[in-house]
C-alpha cells in the first residue's frame, strides 16, 4: 500500500518537476523583466536605473518624438501588408499542394525552407537582390530591358515595402504548412457532396472550407501578428532603419535608445507601448480558447 502511494505521488510530481525550469524562466525572465521595464518607464533613468519617479513624463516624451511616431506609422503599414499577403499567399500555396501534385514532398520543402533561415540572413539576401545596379534590377536589364529600375530600397517612400517583400518570402511557407495540415483534416465526403451538387470549387472554399479552417487561420494570424510587431532583425540587416529614418520600426527605436543613447527609461516606455498591441491580440484568443474549453 505504501509503495503504491509513493508511486502515485511520484507520477503526480514528475510532470510538475519537468515544467518547473520553464515556469521559473517564464516568471523571472519574462514576467519579471516586464514588470521591471514598467517600473523603469516611470523614472528618469539614463545609463543606470534610478528610483526617481516622474510619472508619465517618458510616455509624453515618447509621443513627442517624431522618430517614434514614424516607427508606429511604419509598423502599422508593415503589419497590415505582411499579414494579409502572407496569409493569402500561404493559403494559395496550401491549396496548390493539397491537389496531390507531383513531387509534393520536394515542393513542401522548397516553400518551407526560407523559414528555416534567420531573419538576418534573409535581410542580407534581399538587400543584395534589391540594391540598384545588382540583383533583380541587373538581372532584368540583362534580359533586354535596359531602362528597368527597381530602387525601392533607397526610396524613402517605398523602402518599407521591400521589408514586406523579404519577410513575406520567409514566412509564407510556414503559413502554407499550417494551413495545409488543416486542409488535410477536412473530410473528403464534403468534396464528394459538393461535386454531386455541382457547387463550384471556389464557392466550396469560400463558404465551407475557409470557415472550417477558422481555428488554424486564427493561429496563423496570431503568429504573424506577434512576428510583425517585434520586427527588428530584417530592418537592421536590410536598411539599418534608412534611408535616414524612413524604415524605422519600434523595436529598433527601443534598441537604439537602450544601447546607443543610454536612455533606458525612454526605451522602457517604448517597450511597454509595444507590449500593448501584443496583449490586445492575445487577450481575445485566450478568452476564446477558455470559453471553448468550458
Automatic annotation (TrEMBL):
Question: Which UniProt keywords are present, listed alphabetically?
Answer: Cell membrane, Membrane, Transmembrane, Transmembrane helix, Transport
Its GO CC terms are: plasma membrane
The UniProt entry lists membrane topology as:
Multi-pass membrane protein
Q: Known InterPro entries for this protein?
A: ABC_transporter_permease, MetI-like, MetI-like_sf
Q: Does the keyword Transmembrane apply?
A: yes
Enumerate the spans annotated as ABC transmembrane type-1 domain: 72-285
Family of the protein in this entry:
Belongs to the binding-protein-dependent transport system permease family.
Name of the protein described by the UniProt record: Sugar ABC transporter permease
Q: Which organism is it from?
A: Undibacterium fentianense
Q: Lineage of this protein's species?
A: Bacteria, Pseudomonadati, Pseudomonadota, Betaproteobacteria, Burkholderiales
